[in-house]
Specification:
Blueprint lengths: L1 E6 L2 E3 L5 E9 L7 E6 L6 E6 L6 E3 L7 E6 L4 E6 L8 E8 L3 E3 L3 E5 L2
Parallel strand pairs: 2-11
Antiparallel strand pairs: 1-3, 3-8, 4-5, 4-9, 5-6, 7-8, 9-10, 9-11
Length: 115
């Protein structure tokens, strides 16, 4: 089993930056890929970015390419999402996930981009 706890969400003005963190605990040695997803009000959850265990391979949604950066620190069992040039459409609950033999999800952290 793996437990995931997201942090770093909040209110930010358009054009601003925010860094989200996701701390994993439990059977972290079995984690392969980790990722960030988001869900805006009234919409389905969508992929934001994923990263492999080694950090050598990343994948981004087209809408965030060049703006967001996913990284991980395996020594700290933590994955990060650096978000730059935020737009109101980036508003939503951001969820961390970890893929082992099954997929685990955190409870999410709210990001609100508004002036």
């Amino acid at each position: 089993q793996v437990q995931l706890v997201e942090s770093g969400g909040g209110l930010v003005q358009p054009g601003g930056s925010l860094t989200l963190s996701c701390a994993a605990s439990g059977s972290t040695f079995s984690i392969n890929r980790m990722g960030w997803y988001r869900q805006a009000a009234g919409k389905e959850r969508e992929l934001v970015a994923t990263i492999t265990r080694s950090g050598g391979s990343t994948n981004y949604a087209d809408s965030v390419k060049g703006l967001f950066t996913i990284s991980r620190d395996n020594a700290k069992n933590t994955v990060y999402l650096q978000m730059n040039s935020l737009k109101p459409e980036d508003t939503g609950v951001y969820y961390c996930n970890a893929v082992l033999l099954q997929t685990y999800w955190g409870k999410g952290t709210l990001v609100t981009v508004s002036s």
